[in-house]
Design brief:
The protein is built from 15 helices and no strands. It is mainly alpha-helical and 263 residues long. The chain has one domain: ADP-ribosylglycohydrolase fold, CATH 1.10.4080.10. α1 runs antiparallel to α13 and α12 runs antiparallel to α13.
Length: 263
Amino acid sequence: MIGAIAGDIVGSVYEARPIKSKDFPLFDSRCTFTDDSVLTIAVAWAILSGLPYRDAVLEIGRLYPHAGYGGSFIRWLKSANPQPYNSWGNGAAMRVSPVGFAFDTVEEVLDQARLTAVISHDHPEGIKGAQATALAVFLARRGYKKEEIREQISRRFRYDLQRSVEQIRPAYSFRISCQETVPEAIMAFLDSVSYEDALRNAISLGGDSDTLACITGGIAEAYYGPVPENIKAKVQTILPLPLWKITEKFCRVYRLQGMDAKG
């Protein structure tokens, strides 16, 4: 989960000014947390507390109203009785990584990922993006090889994961849909050699950088093991204390069976 949050923070400075290179400072002085971190932590809070996902997302999201939410989600967050709005946006995928860490069967992961999505993003592509991301985290955590993860996600969700980062990068641009974000984020992980390399791959695509790196970062943490201590320490300095406390508790409770480092 810290892997997803760190990805959001590292990618935050490149959302408005995309880059097409892996050569950049990992933490810029302007790095900050965004809605990706807030809502990831809200999903973790739901799992820890037993609150329905909708209630936890409203509770945590409303504490940080200026985190950079999209327009439709802001209206949902401010509504007296928020209802799903048929969204296929990548917000369904960026907040779901705690599900892949917390649940222990494919069936549970897919069902819980669906539940995190449908509170707002109830379009089939929104649900699919959340489920694909959560399943990738789960499979990585359980020690599946990259080719096994590629095959399972491709077969189940019909995503094209046969491309490389080098092939995707030249023509890729800012995209907000799950269907044009989740496959690319997964490819950034599949093409990586380490956690940090995965983040650099995702951001170098030049798209919705914080969301891409948030999705990629959760999967990469599950696969490579806990994020490096220097990155974890930086996340702690940037997150507000209430968000860090939830993050720390989630990591303590769920961190993380089957997290041996892999190459």
